[in-house]
Amino acid sequence: MENPDEQLVIVCTTEDQVQELLITGALEKAEIKYTVRSFEDSAYDGLFTQHYGHSQILVFEHDAEQAKLIVSDLISP
Fold first, then answer.
1. What is the distance between the alpha carbons of residues 76 and 20, in angstroms, rounded to a whole number?
2. Which of 23, 47, 60, 63 is the most exposed place for a label (fewest CB within 10 A)?
3. pTM above 0.70, yes or no
4. Taking the CB of residue 57, how many other CB atoms lie within 10 A of it?
């Protein structure tokens, strides 16, 4: 059971929806709970996505290290 005081941490910022789906799919497979903070807003025609990226993937602190490893395996610079 998660600690109710545990913080969410950002493990990555995605460039597009495909990358977001790839990462969230891998996190689900690893049974890591996550949340997505989207910057996509059709009313502003991509204004925020150009500056902030498509979305951020956040996980609980206790899963952050494992989640970052998964992300780094999927996304190489």
1. 15
2. 47
3. yes
4. 23
Per domain, the residue ranges of the chain are 15-74
For 55-66, the pLDDT digits (tens) are 999 999 999 999
CB within 8 Å of 22: residues ≥ 6 apart: 74
Among residues 77, 31, 29, 27, the alpha carbon closest in space to that of 57 is found at: 27
Containing 71, the helix (H) or strand (E) segment is helix 64-74
What does residue 72 show for φ and ψ, rounded to 5 degrees? Answer: -65, -30
Place of tokens 């989207």: 38
Under 8 Å between Cβ of 17 and 77: no
